[in-house]
Design brief:
The structure is a single chain. The protein is α/β, with parallel strands linked by helices and 107 residues long. 47% of the residues lie in helices and 17% in strands. The chain is built from 4 helices and 4 strands; from the N terminus they run E-H-E-H-E-H-E-H. A 4-stranded parallel sheet has the order 2-1-3-4, sandwiched between helices. The chain is globular, with a radius of gyration of 14 Å.
Length: 107
């Protein structure tokens, strides 16, 4: 899943428009953090990419939420710089596509 707010949402939405298998979570307001909304939105999510413009506020709050409620999220990614963010989104999409295309053969 990808979580974002503000102008970062527009960027993420544009990059993910052809990848409907990746959940895009938009925060209307990051402070105060909408904990109940996030608990529902993050249900079943194992990997999360936080796309933020400046400081890693959402990422830090998500990490606290994961610990507080023992959520099953294994990885939370964040990057402050625009180019690195684009690279992470690209790698996240590729990884997601690769995982879904793998098949397990039983003999």
């Amino acid at each position: 899943a990808v979580i974002t707010s503000g102008i970062s949402y527009a960027y993420a939405k544009e990059y993910l428009k052809d990848h409907t298998d990746i959940k895009l979570i938009k925060l209307a307001t990051a402070y105060p953090l909408p904990e109940d909304f996030l608990l529902q939105a993050l249900e079943g999510v194992e990997e999360l990419l936080c796309v933020e413009e400046l400081s890693p506020y959402i990422e830090e709050q998500i990490l606290k939420l994961v610990g507080k409620h023992a959520l099953s999220i294994k990885y939370v990614y964040y990057s402050k710089f625009y180019v690195i963010r684009l690279l992470l989104i690209f790698l996240f999409i590729i990884r997601k596509s690769t995982v879904q295309k793998q098949t397990v053969l039983f003999s």
